[in-house]
Specification:
Blueprint lengths: L7 H24 L2 H18 L8 H20 L7 H7 L10 H9 L2 H12 L4 H8 L3 H30 L1
Helix pairs in contact: 1-2, 1-3, 2-3, 3-7, 5-8, 6-8, 7-8
């Protein structure tokens, strides 16, 4: 019996199912809201299914990441960067709840970065993509990506030092 080549839709569906947590995490890093992140992933899947602009199946990773990033940025533009606080964040900041999220300061600092710096930091270090892949996803020159990573990390370091200084002042 002859084995059929999977359809376009089947390839997309399989890839998305294998990587759904990564896509959700990336969308969430932009919008900081569970429902909005899920909507972005769903919209991205729909765009991918309708698009058919992928020429090489081997480039599906960077192609779909690009769709997620652009959909997230479109969402933020439409929302004028209004951040809705989700239940988890509310519980975390309410009195009497212990800090179970170890890197909350890091995530706060990342969220305070401009989208240009946040995008490269999240894609490079949280999604573990190569610099070349980040450049392809964001449609930027590799040297621009390297510069933004360098400046973004420098800004993060400054923000983290400021947070540690403020914390030490409050506790001391």
């Amino acid at each position: 019996m002859l084995k059929r080549e999977p359809t376009w839709e089947q390839k997309i569906a399989e890839y998305v199912m294998e990587n759904k947590e990564n896509f959700y995490r990336l969308a969430y890093s932009y919008v900081q809201n569970q429902e909005d992140a899920l909507d972005i992933v769903q919209d991205s899947i729909q765009k991918a299914m309708l698009s058919k602009t992928l020429k090489d199946d081997k480039a599906i990773k960077s192609w779909f990441y690009k769709i997620i990033v652009n959909t997230s940025l479109d969402f933020l533009r439409k929302r004028k960067k209004l951040t809705v606080v989700d239940d988890t964040t509310l519980q975390l900041h309410s009195q009497g709840v212990s800090d179970y999220y170890e890197d909350i300061d890091l995530h706060r600092a990342i969220n305070e970065l401009s989208p240009d710096y946040r995008s490269v930091i999240v894609l490079r270090y949280f999604e573990d993509l190569k610099i070349e892949e980040v450049a392809e996803i964001l449609e930027l020159n590799i040297s621009t990506i390297k510069t933004r990573i360098y400046k973004g990390l420098k800004l993060l370091r400054i923000q983290m030092e400021d947070l540690n200084f403020e914390e030490a002042k409050q506790n001391g």
